[in-house]
Design brief:
Order of helices and strands: HHHHEEHHHHHH
Number of helices: 10
Number of domains: 1
Structural class: mainly alpha
Strand content: under 5%
Helix content: 55-70%
Shape: globular
Strand order of the largest sheet: 1-2
Number of strands: 2
Length: about 170
């Protein structure tokens, strides 16, 4: 029991230090405004990525995380497309672990997950959908950190829904 109490005290000291360090970066408040994203996720993302200004596009961040797509198709054989996993596994794991509660707690991301898994053309499996949402989260973090954009969940979904309201009604999403 004493060991548990000591560990909890260490944990609270670490979290307080983390909060103080994160206050130095003004964009962190905008990242924390996303429902379902916590301080540990944001701090881990920034620690793994470093200075985000060295990246020209979010696609480079996706490649850093190992989310670049690769196709296994020797010759005329049409193989499966998978993620490369050639990147920082801790960043990839951090994002994947962050997306699971994000889909559960955030309505916009839940709707996006439902769309990816239920669409008529090329529906994704659940894990593939979560990986796609990880890439979406990278793009959102990139926009917040580089351009200073305020996160708005309503702006996230209309791009998908334009011209597809009939299909979404059949899926029970609108």
């Amino acid at each position: 029991m004493e060991d548990y109490e000591r560990k909890m005290k260490q944990y609270t000291v670490i979290m307080e230090t983390l909060e103080e360090l994160c206050k130095a970066i003004p964009e962190i408040e905008e990242m924390l405004a996303i429902k379902g994203i916590g301080l540990a996720t944001v701090a881990g993302f920034i620690a793994e990525v470093g200075d985000i200004r060295r990246f020209e596009s979010p696609r480079q961040l996706q490649k850093l995380a190992g989310y670049a797509l690769k196709e296994n198709s020797p010759g005329k054989h049409k193989g499966q497309t998978t993620i490369s996993k050639r990147g920082r596994s801790r960043l990839r794991g951090l994002l994947f672990k962050a997306v699971i509660p994000l889909v559960a707690k955030n309505e916009e991301f839940e709707e996006l997950h439902r769309y990816y898994t239920n669409r008529k053309e090329n529906p994704l499996k659940k894990k593939q959908s979560l990986v796609a949402i990880c890439c979406k989260l990278i793009r959102i973090f990139y926009a917040i950190l580089t351009k200073g954009i305020v996160y708005d969940g309503e702006k996230m979904t209309p791009i998908l829904w334009t011209g597809r309201t009939k299909e979404l009604r059949t899926l029970g999403m609108r």
